[in-house]
Amino acid sequence: MTDDTDDPFEGLDDIRWGRMRHAYGPAVEVPELLRGLADPDPAIREQALDAMYGGVFHQGDVYPCTIATIPFLVRLATRPGLPGRPEVIRLLADFASADDPLGLTALYRQANERVTAAYPLWSALLEDPDPDVRAATAALLPACLDQAPAAVARLLARLPAEEHPAVLAEIVRSAAAMARRGESVAEVTGRLARMVAAECDPAIQLTVAAELVALPGTDGTAPAIAVADVLPLIAEVYQTGTPGTPPAGFDTPTLVGALRRMREEADEGRRAPRAAALVRSLCAAYGERVADRLSLLTPLLRSPNWECRLDALMPALNLINGWRGDYGELIALVGEQVRGGDPRLLWSAVHVLQDLGMLAAPAAGALAEALTAAGRVAHHPATQEGHIAWVVEWPDATSSVGPALRALAGAADERALPMLAWALDREDMPKDIGGPIGRYGERAAPLLPILRRRLHDLPTGEPRDHRRDGLMYALAQMGPAAAGVVPDLLVLLESGEAATAPLLGALGAIGPASRESLPYIRVAAVHSDRSVSSAAAKALWRIDGDAEGAYAVAERHLGGDRYAVTGAIGVLAELGPAASAATDRLRRLLRRGDEHHWLPLGAAQALWQVTGEADPLLPVLERAWLANAHTRRDVAALWADLGPAAKSAHGLLHAELGRVRRHNASDHGYSSSQVPDDEALVRLCRAALTT
Description:
Blueprint: E1 21-22, E2 25-26, H1 30-36, H2 42-56, H3 64-78, H4 85-95, H5 106-116, H6 119-125, H7 131-140, H8 148-158, H9 165-180, H10 185-198, H11 202-213, H12 227-240, H13 255-267, H14 275-285, H15 290-301, H16 306-322, H17 328-339, H18 343-353, H19 364-373, E3 375-379, E4 389-394, E5 397-401, H20 403-410, H21 417-424, H22 434-438, H23 448-457, H24 467-478, H25 486-494, H26 501-510, H27 518-524, H28 530-544, H29 547-557, H30 562-575, H31 583-589, H32 598-611, H33 618-627, H34 632-642, H35 650-657, H36 674-690
Parallel strand pairs: 3-4
Antiparallel strand pairs: 1-2, 4-5
């Protein structure tokens, strides 16, 4: 797909770009962007590249205008000496889905075919004088599915002649990526195994080792690259250093420019800035071999070299977030980085710990020590610069609990309570303080006097201010221990405060001590908002044992949509045997369609509470467990309640406990409750097997 046209933009203006669209409207500016990609001014090139990624290839989407740019981009790639060629080739690699070209359809497949039709060009550009062009080309070749055998052979043939480390690394990664798809596995594995032994550059050795670890051997087993063999190489990389990213000397108001500046800033003051990527890729390559990953990271976190310790923190976070294991020693070492005082280490270590819940306990001493010595307030982004604080203030926004304090409170450590009390008493009370306080349950009762006062002085009528709801959550977690707050809640209701679901939940959790609020709760029970009326129904039952009033709310919602029915089921589960009149309807709901299985699961939970019948529930629970991993914590809890009646589920429970990957881990997203939720699932599975 090449031509001999002298002008790479010949015919560009003949295309009716305005009839095509990209993410933000008509693609009228595409000719200007394409010309900008080859402009002598690097700032103009960067702005054009940013606009291509932002509109023409928005978040990886391919449009007809994306396809129409490919011939011109290919022409740009063929012009020796033209500025911006490496970026153009990498843009084409992204168009062609080089990272994952399997199973492409529609425009994505068309883009891949248009780019890879120029395979002779890409093969030739592996010999280009510009090493950045060679590296970009090597990264594109995995997109060439139809030419895969030739592409692998071409990459391997280039290895002996290539002298530039960055290009060598890209060739190795691309050849290994194609081998992982099943292409020329034996040839790639054999070549890399010989290379890792013969190579004298430790950074290249580590690159090759990481790819070998992630490759299946010819007998289906992973090649033997022991952690003990790579640790000396890592130490040598940090000792000898690696190239960094020199400042570009210009600035643009673009995302591409911001990412470039972040790389430049991250490299400042470092001897081996490229080592971080090597450690990350090597650790990730060991995959589910958690013991090997721990054997790699724990020595790195003990290293006297601060860069080495810093570079081990994010792989440690990725390991803990995605995989199960015994992380006590690792987390304690992460905590030691908080004590060290280095700003980069401190921020990264706190980032590892902030969402671990009880798993952060081995680092609690270090966190408490650092917080005691820290300032109480920091302004964002100071916390990202290593300034630990109890509270973070944001521009034009309500403050939040600092990540280190959130980590300490997540572990339910008593030393966090005085700090939370101080934050709770601030005029600018953190928007998210209810969650950390709620972690302590009734142990947070000493904070009740401050909580009572704050209920009255927080602003009302602010639709985006949910701080009072957060305090209601904390009170609900305290349960009967929060009985002293009932007069304050009554004052709010008497003054016209809306009976919100969180407020009703707090009253219900407090229980009979909230009896004086019943008139307001009865009014809320007929509210048009189903979340409010359902919360009121539960409160009626918990406070007064009013089964008739609560059941009437559930009855009203059972005829509504899926969300209304879900609320009704929750009320019936609260009522238990008092809701026996709904037994037949709950049995029918067990069979109601729901692609995520939450509704039949809720019906099963309610039916168990109402009737104590196990047999009708078992198929529903098994289907939910297999179809939606996110239901597993609730399903395991119910199996644990069922006891011996759930014996048929033991195979699934044993299989879950045999998994190394966390049940809710994903390569495409992350939840702040991911680790605590999975740890809870493991505990529930063990409980279900012992009942």
